[in-house]
UniProtKB/TrEMBL annotation:
Gene3D superfamilies: Ribonuclease Inhibitor (3.80.10.10). This is Leucine-rich repeat-containing N-terminal plant-type domain-containing protein. Residues 27-65 form the Leucine-rich repeat-containing N-terminal plant-type domain. The keyword Cell inner membrane does not apply. PROSITE patterns: PROKAR_LIPOPROTEIN. InterPro entries: Leu-rich_rpt (IPR001611), LRR_dom_sf (IPR032675), LRR_N_plant-typ (IPR013210), PGIP (IPR051848). The keyword Iron does not apply. One of its GO terms (cellular component) is membrane. SUPFAM superfamilies: L domain-like. Belongs to the polygalacturonase-inhibiting protein family. It is a single-pass membrane protein. It is found in: Cell envelope; Membrane.
């Protein structure tokens, strides 16, 4: 689902940025791009960046609106090595920054804060490291921030709650530590989708999150403990919830499910109780409760019997279809 979210946003940005324009490339933007090319030692990926041609019409990974660069995409070439150049901040009309699947090192430069119109940031699959810089919070127009598959360390930044337009934050497969901030109990805008799997996060989830209506939360593969039931609620519009491979411990029989829940993975925790019949009313596309401490008969109906037996396996005393164990 997160891939679909990302692709839909990215291609929407492409269509906006590539609107027909009779304007030629702004000389300042062109000079900035040539400095960036030189910074990376003139890689083959940027071979089309010829000073004699127009950067808006001929250069790979560049889109313009009215002659100003609005999309910068440099991706899928691991021979590109180096830090994000400071000059990236000298593209004042930039809306989309894509630098993924290359070999970026270091951290995100402060000059990025000059990009006041920036909406989409894709920096995944690199070797960026260090704490997530707090000055990113100055980018008030950003809706999508993807820093997944890097080497970022330190805590989840509490200032994410101060980014009014943020819709999705992806930081999976880093080395982030500590708990979810208490500040996540209040966002200045709508609560963003949170994708934080496979970090080194731990601790209890703040109770204040019970009043937040997330559309998607993925915390898989961390060390969270205690209650995770605050992510549920009969009036919530959550579509995807993945708490798997943690140490959550709560009574599932007391949980109320929002009608929009479609992707639910609670496997590999310490969750106990019985399966609520309410589950049969959901249009589930993915469901896994294996390796917990659940008991009782699996309710019949809805989508539950369409899932594989291994998605119910290794519980304390669950029985009934699709398990072979009769009640």
């Amino acid at each position: 689902m997160k891939l679909l979210i990302r692709l839909s946003i990215f291609f929407a940005a492409l269509s906006i940025s590539s609107l027909p324009s009779s304007y030629s490339c702004n000389p300042k933007d062109k000079n900035t791009l040539l400095q960036i090319k030189k910074h990376f030692n003139n890689p083959k990926l940027l071979s089309s960046w010829d000073p004699q041609t127009d950067c808006c019409t001929s250069w790979t990974g560049i889109e313009c609106t009215n002659g100003r660069v609005t999309l910068f995409s440099m991706a899928n070439d691991d021979s590109v090595v180096g830090q994000i150049p400071d000059q990236i901040g000298d593209l004042p009309e930039l809306r989309t920054l894509e630098m993924s699947f290359i070999n970026l090192t270091g951290n995100i430069p402060r000059t990025i804060t000059k990009l006041k119109h920036l909406v989409l940031i894709f920096l995944s699959w690199n070797r960026l490291s260090g704490p997530i810089p707090d000055y990113i919070s100055e980018l008030k127009s950003v809706t999508f921030l993807d820093i997944s598959f890097n080497k970022f360390t330190g805590p989840i930044p509490g200032w994410l709650t101060q980014m009014p337009k943020l819709q999705t934050f992806q930081a999976n497969n880093n080395s982030l530590t500590g708990p979810i901030p208490n500040s996540f109990g209040s966002f200045v805008g709508n609560a963003p989708n949170l994708f934080l799997p496979y970090n080194k996060l731990s601790g209890k989830i703040p109770e204040s999150l019970s009043k937040i209506d997330f559309q998607a939360v993925v915390l898989k593969g961390n060390g969270f403990t205690g209650d995770g039931s605050m992510f549920f609620g009969g009036n919530k519009r959550t579509v995807q919830l993945d708490l798997s491979r943690n140490l959550f411990e709560f009574d599932l029989s007391k949980v109320k499910f929002g009608k929009s829940m479609a992707l639910l993975d609670l496997s590999h925790n310490r969750i106990f109780g019985t399966l609520p019949r309410e589950l049969t009313e959901l249009r589930l596309e993915r469901f896994n409760i294996s390796y917990n401490r659940l008991c009782g008969k699996i309710p019949r109906g809805g989508q539950l019997q369409t899932f594989k037996s291994y998605e119910f396996a290794e519980n304390r005393c669950l029985c009934g279809s699709p398990l072979k164990k009769a009640c």
